[in-house]
Amino acid sequence: MRGLFYVDNNTVWTSGTNGVIGFSNEDGLKSFTKNDSWSELDFRDIHAFSNKEAIIMSSGDGCKIYKTDDGQESWNLVYENHDEGIFFDGMDFWSDGCGIAFSDPIDNQLYIIETKNKGDSWQKINSTALPKTLEGEAGFAASGTGIVCLGDSTVYIGTGGGEVSRVFISHDRGVTWKTVDTPMRSGAASGIYSLTFMDEKNGVAVGGNYLDSLSTNGNCAITSDGGLTWELPKIPPTGYMSCVAHNGNGVLICTGRNGIDVSYDKGNNWQHISDDAYYSCVLNGETGWLTGREGKMAKITIK
Description:
Methylamine Dehydrogenase, Chain H; four-stranded antiparallel sheet; 26 strands
């Protein structure tokens, strides 16, 4: 289970391999459904608008995006792409239901699609201003959180795999773009796996190298100027991390193969709090969730 989205204390949606979709409520009750026609699909990202309305995105060779408006009673195919080289890494939405999803590069440009109706339909963004990607540069679909929509029209996309790990930034919903270099680890299997922003200025990127998961080299970077510059933290998290989240009240957590770390100072210093490994995490106020292998889930309570 890599896709994870927090709606409220009553509803948390998850998605994963073999077409499994589920949700948990505040009492820890988990409900999982499996669609046999999706047995070959790996839903790496999910976004929900309510306990009834959600959208799921598959990663891998080709992409399918489905949406439900009736709490999983039915799912509609709203986007499909089998072009050579397509591998979608994540999606995110602004509060008005407009959103963006991105794939690894096609013809040396990130492949980006947008929706203006809560995912009911999608169109490719044809931006001549989209920067060319570096050799080997791509995104990571480890938790679907390598993309963040912020405020009214800003979007951040983290990459890796190239000679430098970068953040793609647009302040007009994908019409124009710029890139910013980061000190995150670069090269094959290395880079930014997840992003989160606490406000319009302060953000955190985590990742590293999943093949060298014990290394803390370039596994976290922080920004205090809206992503224009990034620096390494004083005390980094414990090795490779696949997801980072904040609770809106100054608490950050990140998770990966080496367990869970927490920060109380905008990502400058991290403390290891658990060896339990998870793919994804979400936080909101005093509650949070983690998902991992074989449907494994954990609830977090912040006291």
